[in-house]
Every structure is written in structure tokens, then in C-alpha cells.
Amino acid sequence: MYDFLGKVCLVTGGTSGIGETVSERLIKTGADVIVFGRDEEKGAALADRLGEHCRFIACDVGDPAQVEQAFATIRSAYGRLDCAFNNAGVTAKYGALAQSCPDDWMKVMNINVNGTYHCMRHELQLMLTRGTGAIVNTSSCAGVVPIGGQVAYVASKQAINGMTQVASIENARLEEGGCIRVNAVAPGPILGGMNNEARLKAAPENTQRKINVTSMKRFGTADEVANAVLWLLSDQSAYVTGVIMPIDGGYASGKF
């Protein structure tokens, strides 16, 4: 359906869940994919499974020095960047703001917000040299309709929404008619990653709560999110920028 033949694409947080699925789908459509992740063992296994068109670079996106070095490698090896999916992110334990842990707050904000910022800054610099490109960030349904007990996560995802829309405005009309489109997806409860089987079984009440906040009363899949990501990265969405797209089974539609 999509043609990414010859395009150089970056996926952060790409060794599991949605990121892994997007990496695999991009390679199947002809892309060369660079995957950032912190787990070198998982990264090596992914690159081995996906083959010669996948390159893993160990990188903690919350560390600006590591991001700088990773992008130096991209510049040296590829000299360009066509697409980027900024998917690296973490959450924290549920709890009211008054009882929350400042260390948890800093960890979530550093990876989700600072990490997205560090990567976007370098991605845009690379894309601006050619005057074209597409970026998709991972927000969350909680960044569209906040939920209690997740102050750091909600704040981080709302910050990502803001960064997405600022960058979309700044790069929508470049010299000589160029454009770098910047959008975000806002997934609801998705199987895998943070909702892996072990976690869901360990907390059945929390699992049911996640299902109940959707009007469809089910979890989504990584493939369902990847469908939206690939569309937003592709030329088929050439007139779309600055969008925060819910992929959430109806979570953002209202309370049920």
C-alpha cells in the first residue's frame, strides 16, 4: 500500500511494541530503517531479524550527548533523513500528584519530553538540508483527555502535542515550496509494550479499567497504530500537518 523505497527512516523506541511494528512495516515497504533503543541485546536481535535494511544504534534519547553521537552516525552513514517516528517513552506508577515522586516526574519528562525535543531538533536539521520530510511523534490518549493519577505522563504527552504543532507551523512552508510535515498519533490502550501480557495478568482490575475507558471496549493493536503512522509518514497524507490523531477506540469521544 505504501512505498518508502529508498527512504531513510528513523524509529526511536523501536525494539518492541509499536516501534518494532513500525520498523518492520517500513522495511517491508522498501525503507532503510535506523532504530534507536537502550537495550542493546534487543536491538541486535531486531536488526538480525529484519536484515540488512535495519540498523540499530544504542541511544538513550534523554541523554543529549548520546543523541548527538547517534545523529552523527546517521549523517556519516546516510547523509540524509526522510522520515522519523519518535516513539521512545516511559510512564510512571499511578498516584495522586500530592503523593507523587519527583524522581519519577524527572524520569518521565526527561525521556518523553526532552528525548523527543533532542531528536526532533536533529531530525529537522537533517531534513531542512533537503527541504522535505515527515515526522510523527507518539503522544497518548491521556495527552488529549487527561486522566487522574498520571500527572507526569499526561504533562509529558501534552508537551509533545505542543512541540508537534509548533514544529508543524515552523516547517509547513519552506523556501522553494518545500515542507516538513509534523504530526502525532495519540494511542489508547494498546497491547504489547507497556501493556504486555505479564503486566495485564498481574493487575486485572487495572486491565479492565483500561478496556472500559474505550467505547469499543477492547485494546488496540500495534498494527492498528502502525497503519496511522505509515499513512502520516507517507506522501498519501501530503496535505496533513499539525494533527494529533487519536488511535484510541473512542477514548477521546467522551465518557462512557
Layout of strands and helices, then pairs:
Elements: E1 8-12, H1 17-28, E2 32-37, H2 40-50, E3 54-58, H3 64-77, E4 83-86, H4 102-128, E5 132-138, H5 151-170, E6 179-187, H6 197-202, H7 204-212, H8 222-233, E7 244-247
Parallel strand pairs: 1-2, 1-4, 2-3, 4-5, 5-6, 6-7
InterPro entries: KR_dom, NAD(P)-bd_dom_sf, Sc_DH/Rdtase_CS, SDR_fam
Family: Belongs to the short-chain dehydrogenases/reductases (SDR) family.
Protein name: Alcohol dehydrogenase
Quick summary of this structure?
With 256 residues, the chain is an alpha/beta fold. Helices cover 43% and strands 16% of the residues. It is built from eight helices and seven strands; from the N terminus they run βαβαβαβαβαβαααβ.
What does this structure look like?
- The protein has about 260 residues and is α/β, with parallel strands linked by helices.
- It has one domain (about 10-195, about 220-245): Rossmann fold (3-Layer(aba) Sandwich).
- It contains 8 helices and 7 strands.
- The chain has helices spanning about 15-30, 40-50, 65-75, 100-130, 150-170, 195-200, 205-210, 220-235; strands at about 10, 30-35, 55-60, 85, 130-140, 180-185, 245.
- The chain has a 7-stranded parallel sheet, with helices on both faces.
- Strand 4 (about 85), helix 4 and strand 5 (about 130-140) form a beta-alpha-beta unit.
- Helix 1 (about 15-30) crosses helix 8, helix 3 packs parallel to helix 4 (about 100-130) and helix 4 packs parallel to helix 5 (about 150-170).
- The longest helix is centred in the middle third of the chain and has 27 residues, at about 100-130.
- It starts with 7 loop residues before the first strand and ends in a 9-residue tail after the last strand.
